[in-house]
Amino acid sequence: MDHASHVRPVRNVRLTLAYDGTDFRGFAESDGVRTVMGELRRAVGTVIRGPAELTGAGRTDAGVHAWGQVVTGMLPDDTDLRRLMRSVNALCAPDLSIRDVEWVDDQFSARFSATARTYHYDVWNDPSPHPLLARTSWHVPHPLDVDAMNAGASSLLGEHDFSAFCRRPKPATGHPEPSLVRRLQLARWARLGTGHWESSVGGQLRFEITATSFCHQMVRSIVGTLVDIGLGRRGPETIPATLAARHRNAAGQLAPPTVLVLFSVDYSGDRWDA
Q1: 169 Cβ neighbours under 8 A, 6+ residues apart
Q2: SS3 of 32, please?
Q3: Average pLDDT value over all residues in the chain
Q4: Phi, psi (rounded to 5 degrees) for 89
Q5: pLDDT tens across 199-217, in order?
Q6: Mean pLDDT of 182-193
Q7: How many CA atoms, within 13 angstroms, populate the side-chain half-sphere of residue 264?
Q8: 179, burial (CB in 10 Å: exposed 0-12, middle 13-18, buried 19+)
Q9: How many CB atoms lie within 10 A of CB 28?
Q10: Most buried residue, 49, 88, 170, 190, by most Cβ within 10 Å?
């Protein structure tokens, strides 16, 4: 019997992941440290009894969480997907789980087929910390003006060079600097619950932001800048000038990473940057 007869046919699988990023050193696999992709690849490989080549929709930094990260990869076509999900979840509990799994077209890519990504960022705005939200919300003890924050956020919508809100990557040798132009489709603050102040201020706030893609530290820089607006350190009318400056020093503080959540990845419509 020749070797070809032992090759198992493969199909493309799509996994939707959730993870608590607290104890991971980011998403991408890296030698010697615990990462989301490293744990997932190990667990999937154990279940299918072979190597698993997987690709994520995007990388998340150390401490960043996800509710709707998407991963694709080729697995043996006789894989029982429900058993795969149960087994991987048992191996990776409690801080990483597969929420959904399905076979998809071989041309579908978690990364390259994505048309938009949505992040959430929660703020606990109250004089006192909230122990039950400490790992999932940034505690800001002084009152925030949510209307001013939303006014500032509205100036970010559309297509802009977000250099002022990004950590500029080093270009590869012999290559030009990568573009930091992005198209922002949604940026808004909403109140989820009230705190100790009167009902018009304080409590749990959530920032929701959707874009075609994000550059490094973009969401955290935007959140920090909008919180500065909410605290009265700068006005919402300063956002256009901040964008025009195209320099990180023009924006506000960098919000902590440990609250950021990759909430969902969208695959409908056309790729903006295709």
Answers
A1: 177, 178, 215, 216
A2: coil
A3: 91
A4: -65, -35
A5: 556 789 999 999 999 999 9
A6: 93
A7: 7
A8: exposed
A9: 14
A10: 88
CB 102 within 8 A of CB 267: no
> Quick one: which of 261, 248, 250, 254 has its CA closest to 166?
248
Q: Which pLDDT band, with edges at 50, 70 and 90, does 274 fall under? A: very low
**Is residue 37 within 8 Å of residue 56, measured between CB atoms?**
yes
pLDDT (tens digit per residue) in 55-65:
999 999 999 99
Q: Which helix (H) or strand (E) holds 240?
A: helix 239-245
User: pLDDT tens digits, residue range 66-94?
Assistant: 999 999 999 999 999 999 999 999 999 99
Inter-residue contact 127 to 196 (CB < 8 Å): yes
Sign of CA dihedral 79, 80, 84, 85: positive
Q: Catalytic annotation on 122?
A: no
pTM of the entire predicted model = 0.90
Task: Give the closest residue to 115 by CA, choosing from 188, 15, 213.
Answer: 213
* Rounded (10°) CA dihedral 131, 137, 142, 148: -160
Q: b/e map of 118-151 (b: 16 or more CB within 10 Å)?
A: bbbbbbbbbeeeeeebeebbbbbeebbbbebbbb
Tokens of 125: 């705005």
Question: Beta strands 261-266 and 116-125: pairing type?
Answer: antiparallel
Which of 2, 31, 61, 78 is flagged as catalytic?
Answer: 61
Q: Which domains does the chain have, with CATH numbers?
A: 9-104 (3.30.70.580), 117-266 (3.30.70.660)
Indicate the residue type of 201.
V
Q: Which tokens in the block code for residue 194?
A: 């009230």
